[in-house]
Amino acid sequence: MRNNSIKQWLSLLVIATMSIACFGYEKAVREFKEFNSASLDGKVIFLDGTNGYYHFKLDNDPKKYGCRPVSADNFGISFDEVAMGNNLKKMPYADTLIVIKKSRTYKYVFKKFEDQEKN
Amino acid sequence: MFNKSGSVNLKADENRLSMEGTSNEFNWILRGPEASIYPIWTTTTNVITGGASGFSINVGGATYLGPVSEINRSIVETKFREGGVGTYVSVPFAVGFSATGGYTPGTNGAPGIISGSLSFDPLAGEIGDVPVPKYGVSFSNTYKVKDFKPESNEK
Fold first, then answer.
1. Which residues of B97-116 are buried (b: 16+ CB within 10 A; e: fewer)?
2. Which of A23, A50, A95, B115 is most exposed, with minimal Cβ within 10 Å?
């Protein structure tokens, strides 16, 4: 009886994990395509992060963008520590985005998803 | 879906779910471009409340299963609504002491995180806690309270 409940629980866990992974990957690829092709130049007015992935909005753009930025300069400061309320810039298909805070420029690279790399 | 499976576990055996309420942690990011000796203070709140409560001290580590170059300091944050659901197995090996291993599936296209920790519960012997292995799913949100890394410090 107990073994059966463990098996049921494990089965449910495997299904749930795979569903999260598949849905999450597709969503991230979709969001990356939009983010990668966008020309961004505005003040960050919304920021939400989880597991190293951020969603953000700019004051001059109604879209919500998603990406996984990692520091690419000598500061090594987390994106959420500098982005909120400050200017963010990125050219279309650029491999780096920059955040300007108090005259300092912070650079971030971001994870590129396979589907987009092939193009 | 996750709430339902959590409720089933709760009814079967309250000890299977980690429901201590809120916990505070200091995390060090030791690899990747944003690695630092300065810690990040986080607080974890369980989505499902109730059940067992207690106090314990935990020391452990975690490994991101993706490339080191993808590790940033926000990796310590998790959100239940974004799919941040963790699983764990906890095995007691002495009165008040237990070893816990866990796996958190990746969200937003990222690989998962495996973790391990040693826990000490000073009240375990006094309240007659039965030393049996526990396993389950944790439904929680982890938020950054403060990142102690100074913005002006260059490497």
1. ebebebbbbbbbbbebbebe
2. A95
Can you tell me the ipTM of this complex? 0.77
Full domain range(s) for residue B85: 2-147
Identify the domain containing residue A107 by its residue range: 2-111
Q: How many domains does chain A have?
A: 1
Residue A89 lies in a domain: yes
What is the DSSP annotation of B128-150? T-----EEEEEEEEEEEEEE-S-
Query: Which residues in chain B touch residue A3, judged by CB atoms under 8 angstroms apart?
Result: none
One-letter amino acid at B106 equals: G
Render each residue's pLDDT in chain A as its tens digit; 119 residues.
Answer: 566 776 776 777 667 666 766 677 788 888 899 999 999 999 999 999 888 899 999 999 999 999 999 999 888 899 999 999 999 999 999 999 999 998 899 999 998 876 544 44
| Min Cα separation A46/chain B (Å) | 16
Are the C-beta atoms of residues A70 and B32 closer than 8 Å to each other?
yes
Q: Which among A69, A76, A79 has CB closest to B36?
A: A76
Confidence label for B1 from pLDDT (cuts 50, 70 and 90) = very low
Closest partner CB to A52 (pick from B2, B36, B72): B72
- For the whole model, what pTM was predicted? 0.77
Please check whether residue A75 lies inside any domain of the structure.
yes
Q: Taking the CA atoms of chain B, what radius of gyration do you get in angstroms?
A: 16
Give the distance from CA B55 to its chain's centroid: 15
